[in-house]
Amino acid sequence: MAPSNPITHIVLFKYRSNISWTDFQTHFTTFQSLQQRCRHPDTGKPYMLSMRMGQNNSWERFSKGMTHGFVLEFASQAHLDYYLQHDPVHAEFSRSAKPLTEDSVVVDITDGVLFGPKPKMPVGVGGVWTGSCHCRDVGWEVRVPEGEEVKHTVCHCDTCKKLGGGPYSCNFIVPKDNFIVPKDNFIVPKECITITRGNPREYAYQGASGKDVHCFFCTRCTSHIYHHQDAMPEKIIVRTLLLDGGNELEAGGEIFAEGALDWAQDLRKALSQSWPVKA
Q: Which terminus of the chain has fewer Cβ atoms in its 10 Å neighbourhood, N or C?
């Protein structure tokens, strides 16, 4: 039985003018394959109801430069959320598509629903998170294990104060190799963080353990993206406030609490209760 109120996901792309015909063919073939390759983890079956795509052939002057349109249909908002945030096949496709696109527009509709509240962006859950520095020269993706809740870990150490120029930093620790990619019948681990644009620079210093800590930052705006400690080689520590949706995350704990500034002590009261999420 067809769902009564499917979600229609409309994507418009403006492709770059210098794309080769071969790249176009590969891109569109891969895009079309998502309907069968994207499978829901609960059923193991494809969950995208339909897909349509085509070139913009409108003679009206309202296309805003968009060259192609794609219309995808999902049975529910939960299925669309999984596709956008957690499906590894879609995430891999999105990474390969970014160098080809100059701009995009995305609209989600439910037929006949003209008024009412919009669905909230899911936050605080595992999956693929995107981030960028202040000047946006550097972009990245972080893969958090499914089922793991993402919250700020507040660090009060003197190093974080020096690096960030603030009373503390907000972080999340992610297993370095946590994303398993099936390839030719073999299981291949993939690093949890992927730089999607730009080239961050590394700054290394000696940590409290006596081993090096490697900090990666944007060379233009100096935003501190993540760091990797030799004392904890299997982990990567990401700056959560640089993630898209980071402002909506709750605080989950603190480290080096003895270094907290006196006026920052009130933060501890907030750590034991849920912080309100913006509407």
A: N
Per-residue CA distances from 43 to 38, 39, 119 (Å): 11, 8, 24
CATH number at residue 82: 3.30.70.100
Tell me which DSSP letter residue 243 carries: B
Asked if 55 and 48 touch (Cβ cutoff 8 Å), the reply is: no
* DSSP 8-state code for residue 118: P
Structural domain span for residue 33: 7-110
Are 149 and 246 in a shared domain?
yes
pLDDT per residue as tens, the chain (279 positions): 556 789 999 999 999 999 999 999 999 999 999 999 999 988 999 999 999 999 999 999 999 999 999 999 999 999 998 898 778 899 889 888 888 999 999 999 999 999 988 887 666 666 778 889 999 999 988 888 766 788 899 999 999 999 889 999 999 988 887 544 444 444 444 578 888 899 999 999 998 889 999 999 999 999 999 999 999 888 899 999 999 888 878 888 888 888 888 877 666 565 655 544 444
- What sections of the chain are H helices per DSSP? 21-37, 77-85, 88-97, 158-164, 267-271
The tokens of 81 are what?
């959320």
pTM of the model: 0.55
Domain total of the chain: 2
2 domain residue, yes or no = no
